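4.2 Preliminary Data

To establish feasibility before requesting continued support, the project team ran the inverse folding procedure on a target of 307 residues. The structure was first converted into the token representation described in Section 3, and no sequence information of any kind was made available to the design step. The complete token record follows.
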């Protein structure tokens, strides 16, 4: 019935918003903004009606959650970085019907998932920043999925991604895009050193690790990447423990995925972290290697001592 037309790993750095404002930082994140604008253009060209964002700023301690209210509107200030994002207005439509379909599919696949279609809960900036540049005209409906998962298996996140793809293909009459909204390495600069690391990665180790990961994506080394994802998430300080990336790869076929990633915004540093905008081509898959639900394999668990 429906179609997953586009998948991407995207940045949401709050310095993109600062980049709009007059002053010292004006324009310095234009490349990232341009990457979002290009992703939006491609979505429109493909007939996408709804964007599903795996948001690594939505922290949850139990279950997976889908924010699918009918409409989102408000004024947002980041509780983490109020000096970066302050009083940012937003408005775009939601998609309650699709949200419920996605949650039902997650549960059918053994991953406890809840849809929230009547809620005062607003999106986090992992959703709001991309939508600012992709959806100012409210062209797309938007759904946000919790992806800062503190007590969850990466295997379950991969399985949820596949369940959501199947939900779109088998039960939704429309065209959808999935975005993993989060960084690669996410080791913020130590307090007091942020200005020094505004455009630097925290360490050469993390920079080299990230660059090798991007190379693996471009070369379609997916079996190797999926096997190392839990350790990369931990040792590479992956944002949201990289549950957004697990969801995206699950939707694309996990270790049997065969797409070569197209980088739109080359890897860049922001406040010590590693960022990118990249398209993951959607290819036919049968889901034959999607991990089992509630896997007990310790390698599928990312340590939760670091948020």
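Position-by-position output of the design step:
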């Amino acid at each position: 019935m429906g179609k997953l037309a586009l998948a991407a790993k995207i940045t949401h750095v709050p310095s993109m918003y600062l980049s709009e404002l007059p002053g010292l930082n004006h324009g310095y994140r234009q490349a990232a903004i341009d990457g979002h604008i290009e992703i939006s253009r491609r979505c429109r060209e493909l007939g996408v009606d709804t964007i599903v964002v795996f948001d690594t700023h939505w922290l949850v301690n139990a279950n997976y959650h889908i924010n699918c209210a009918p409409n989102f509107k408000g004024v947002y200030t980041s509780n983490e970085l109020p000096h970066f994002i302050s009083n940012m207005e937003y408005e775009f439509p939601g998609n309650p019907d699709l949200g419920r379909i996605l949650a039902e599919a997650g549960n059918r696949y053994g991953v406890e998932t809840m849809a929230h279609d009547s809620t005062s809960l607003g999106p986090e900036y992992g959703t709001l920043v991309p939508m600012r540049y992709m959806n100012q005209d409210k062209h797309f409906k938007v759904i946000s999925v919790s992806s800062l998962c503190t007590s969850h298996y990466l295997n379950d996140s991969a399985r949820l991604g596949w369940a959501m793809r199947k939900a779109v293909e088998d039960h939704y009459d429309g065209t959808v895009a999935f975005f993993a909204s989060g960084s690669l390495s996410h080791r913020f600069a130590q307090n007091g050193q942020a200005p020094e690391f505004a455009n630097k990665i925290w360490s050469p180790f993390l920079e080299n690790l990230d660059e090798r990961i991007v190379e693996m994506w471009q070369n379609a080394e997916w079996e190797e990447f999926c096997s190392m994802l839990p350790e990369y998430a931990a040792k590479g300080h992956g944002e949201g423990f990289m549950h957004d990336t697990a969801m995206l790869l699950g939707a694309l076929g996990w270790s049997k995925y065969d797409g070569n990633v197209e980088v739109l915004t080359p890897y860049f540093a922001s406040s010590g972290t590693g960022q990118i905008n990249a398209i993951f081509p959607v290819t036919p898959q049968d889901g034959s290697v999607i991990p089992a639900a509630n896997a007990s394999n310790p390698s599928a668990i990312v340590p939760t001592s670091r948020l």
